[in-house]
Amino acid sequence: MEHTAHGSPPDRGGGPGRDETPQERADRRWNEVLQEVRVAQTGAQILFGFLVSVAFTPVFARLGSFDTDLYVVTVVLGACATGTLIAPVSFHHFLAGHNLKPALVRTAFRMIAFGLALLALTIGCALLLLLRTATGNPTLAWILSAAVMGWFATSWLLLPHLVLRRAERSRAAR
């Protein structure tokens, strides 16, 4: 096996400390995608199933027009989130055997990111609808829902961005 001047194997595209071909990297990243999507898909599917059942409850008939419209938007967002998070499986099914795994992985990452955004919006709308109905206080419902969405933005976007920036600064300092 070939080694670099530091005695380690050359990086063949797998990142620091990895000795993998581009195809091995694509296989590893695909397995990582599957693990990520399993968690998100399950949550989206359970939430969507719950949302569908709400229309068949007695409380639904008493909702005002705003809340009914909010419910429809929430269900549509939930359906889109579920479909988007399942899409990488369909992509894989149709593209398997065509030597397109690196492209599949890149597309799957984008689909998951978009699916997570749709899922966050679904949760935010569902929470708003629930809190409007449960508390009877629309202002409190908006404030609490906005706070939860702020937490999602912080934990799903801001914190990973900060970790990445810190790691990049650390690498640049070496």
Automatic annotation (TrEMBL):
Keywords, comma-separated and alphabetical: Membrane, Transmembrane, Transmembrane helix
Compositionally biased residues, Basic and acidic residues: 17-26
Transmembrane segments annotated in the record for this chain: 46-64, 70-91, 112-134, 140-164
Keyword Isomerase: no
Domain of life: Bacteria
Pfam family, one: DUF6328
Ranges in coiled-coil conformation: none
Claim: Secreted is one of the keywords in the record: no
Region span, Disordered: 1-26
Annotated protein name in UniProt: DUF6328 family protein
Protein species of origin: Kitasatospora paranensis
Taxonomic lineage of the native organism: Bacteria, Bacillati, Actinomycetota, Actinomycetes, Kitasatosporales
